Amino acid sequence: MTLTAEKKHDLLRQMYTIRAFEEMAEQLYTMGKIHGTMHLSIGMEASAVGAVAALQDDDFILSTHRGHGHCIAKNADLNLMMAEFMGKETGYCRGRGGSMHIADVDGGNLGANGVVGGGIPIAVGVGLSQKMQKTGRICLSFFGDGAANLGPFHEALNMAAIWTLPVVFVCENNQYAMSYSAKKAFAIDKISDRAAAYGMPGETVDGNDLMAVYTAVRRAVDRARDGGGPSLIESSTYRWRGHSKSDANRYRSKAEIEEWRAKDPIARFRQQLIDAGELDDQGADAIMQAASGAIDTAVEFADSSPEPDLATIEDGVYA
Amino acid sequence: MPRELTYLEAVREALQQEMRRDERVFVIGEDVGVYGGAFGVTRGMVEEFGEERIIDTPISELGIAGAITGAALTGMRPVGEIMFMDFTTLAAEQLVNQAAKIRFMFGGNATVPFVLRTPAGSGTGAAAQHSQSLENWFVHVPGLKVVMPSTPYDAKGLLVASIRDDNPVMFIENKLLYKSRGPVPEEIYTLPLSVSEVKREGRDVTIVATAIMVQRALEAARQLAEMGIEVEVVDPRTLKPLDRQPIIASVIKTGRVLIVHEACKTGGFGGELAAVIAGSEAFDFLDAPIIRLAGRDMPIPYNRTLEYHTVPQVDDIVQAARKLAEGSV
User: Fold this and answer.
1) Which of A53, A253, A311, B163 has the most CB atoms less than 10 A away?
2) What residue in B sits closest to A139 (Cα-Cα)?
3) Is the pTM for the entire model greater than 0.90?
């Protein structure tokens, strides 16, 4: 389960890429180049990158409305992703999906989701299908703390457990379901305690510590691939930004946000690598700069891409 | 003499033959295994195909809808069963927000080839929560196809076609029709989706009817023929996407149209049919207003007599068609 220094550098690059992508997306939204709504995962990068790092390239993920990080961690092409954000024909979904519905089916990303909890029952079907086809591939289902109080969570975890499906459920507890605090929404301390009710292992990890996320998810992935069935991992983290672009943050204090900003998962992983002698400051800065360079290229690509042709407006409604 | 099967047996045979032909096809739902399904459609199938392909589920309708969506998205061709159409309400999020939209939202880069079978309709004395006809809820959702067969022959051919279709298909069976019999070829065959069929030719009045109302319209037509009124009966078979032309052509021929369905009248499929006809070239040929006969706007009552009078019966169709034909509407 140990990772090479090279792989760790790549994971740091992914985290910087997510941060840079989202900061750019936020800027483009303010400029009116990206419309609709947007849910940023700034502050949660270790959760996405650590979890996906535990997968093989041909495994599947199902994501959430806060899914930019998952998408990038699953090796999304940043050009296609940015073009989708701008609604362009060259985007992952030809401008039909936007940031909440990005999918890269060939790359194993079966879609972000605009409905809280919407992807969890689909993960059961993906796991079932992999088991029936004996592919050895597994499905990782991301969802938030809010989704864990919805019916689909309970139906899906139960079905995955009784059929021993190769699914890993990763609950990213970022402490708020929109404005509703997880402290108010749960009468239990750990969401992962719910795993016991379905007969699967459950574990809560520090979601701002990339290696902690990776290690826990990797254990669950190995178990799923070996036919041991599903697990529930709670990745405890925090979103620095509001729920969406219309959020005035009235439900939490500046002090709380600052407290979590001090636990920046990127700075933390970077320091871990430097302390271990696996990277120096100069090398880390180079990784960071390369990441933002890739974002600039993606913006240029998206900017210069064509709008969808109106004649194709109904394409894809039916096969 | 061609072989006859019941509508229920025709559905089962379609499932069996497709499962033998294509190993990606499997059945999943509540009590579909040893129990054989609440209405007996899948009886005996677990013996042939095993529990791996005839999958019993907990009572988790949304879970079933999610399972067929995810499996269809990744290489399988599942057939889900929701025991009563009333319970598709529990599965609606997955059907409406997920399965129906995935292909479009993903820019055409995915297909969701599943069939969701579910029995609809009243007449079994099961009262308000086991008797609804909610087809129009799904007709209103782009990305879903909605199929409602009215005969054993159609049930088999349309189900095979639905399983082979690359879209999510809501396949709505009628409980009272399960026991009806008709000729069904032994070999596997498909009937194309989105093709309306003229079930009976006539010159005086067009009746457009769905599901069991097709059978009631045909019986009404036999009675009306004795009165000298020749009724043409058109069955859309697929409600969405709708094949309009045979309906329009029939109305041009007869000049009078009666629409009959079991679901509640307000916001029902009849309103859509009426608008399609009124907005078509058939409008100039209409000799009378378009008439709709449909279920009353109320829950299905438990009492047998009340239940009977909640939805259109043969006598209601005879009377309405007769008035139309005689110009007394």
Assistant:
1) B163
2) B70
3) yes
